[in-house]
Design brief:
The protein has one domain: Alpha-Beta Barrel (TIM Barrel). Helix content is 38%, strand content 28%. The protein has 11 helices and 12 strands. A hairpin with a 4-residue loop joins strand 8 and strand 9.
Length: 251
């Protein structure tokens, strides 16, 4: 299906949707099922559900939250957090996810991407990358919700992941996350130019104009959280701005 995807994101901790800045100073913003249903009503194309506490805590994703979201959704659902194995991915898909996002575990063992693609198909495999500006590297891959640097350059990692079998990339600017300072357009442009995979922009949106800028930088998926959670804008507002900028959106 052609057109840009507008994708609200639900970051979850302890069973509730939260939002912070650079993955810290988290505040409660609501229940998973309530927000999921509202964003589908507003016209969201896909929803992303990320258990941001799973990997740091060394546990798998809470499957009941996936089931809660699936019960109220008919749109595609990507789920991430704590995915370390084929069994973890299989459990999430069985609970209602359409795609699984893998981050830290893929950095630790890149062959996991190939294994996931072989078992479930590339269309189910989303590589989530948290990128932080770093001297001498440009943008460094960070893991465990931004707690640990890896010394690995983002662009090289994206090319490797594409060759291994990732189906698309969810690229989050750690520096911009929750700041309302706009997406890292330099990062998006570089990634779009060097990586053949569909690219989802994440981190820093303050309003529809930022999603327009991300689309023009090369993203075809536009992820945002705070602007929707705080009620500043709706999915419809964003789609109207994209259409006004003569960018193709999904109906």
């Amino acid at each position: 299906m052609p057109g840009l995807r507008v994708m609200p994101c639900l970051d979850v901790r302890d069973g509730r949707v939260v939002k912070g800045t650079r993955f810290q100073e988290l505040r409660d913003v609501g229940a998973v099922a309530d927000l999921a249903a509202e964003y589908e009503r507003q016209g969201a194309d896909e929803l992303v559900l990320l258990d941001i506490a799973a990997t740091p805590a060394g546990r798998s994703h809470a499957l009941e939250l996936v089931r809660e979201a699936r019960r109220v959704l008919s749109i595609p659902l990507t789920v991430g957090g704590g995915v370390r194995s084929l069994a973890d991915a299989d459990a999430l898909l069985g609970a209602g996810a359409d795609k699984v996002a893998v981050n830290s575990a893929a950095v630790a063992r890149p062959a996991l991407l190939a294994e996931l693609a072989e078992r479930f198909g590339v269309q189910c495999v989303v590589l989530a990358v948290d990128a932080k500006r770093a001297p001498g590297i440009g943008h460094e891959v960070v893991v465990r919700s931004g707690r640990d640097g890896t010394g690995r350059g983002v662009l090289a990692w994206l090319r490797e992941a594409a060759a291994l079998g990732a189906g698309e990339v969810l690229l989050t600017s750690w520096d911009r996350d929750g700041t309302g300072s706009g997406y890292d357009l330099e990062l998006l442009q570089a990634a779009a130019a060097r990586c053949p995979l569909p690219l989802i922009a994440s981190g820093g949106a303050a309003g529809p104009e930022d999603l327009v800028a991300a689309a023009r930088a090369g993203a075809d998926g536009l992820l945002a959280a705070s602007i929707f959670h705080d009620g500043r804008f709706t999915v419809g507002d964003v789609k109207a701005a994209l259409a006004a900028a003569e960018l193709e959106v999904r109906s």
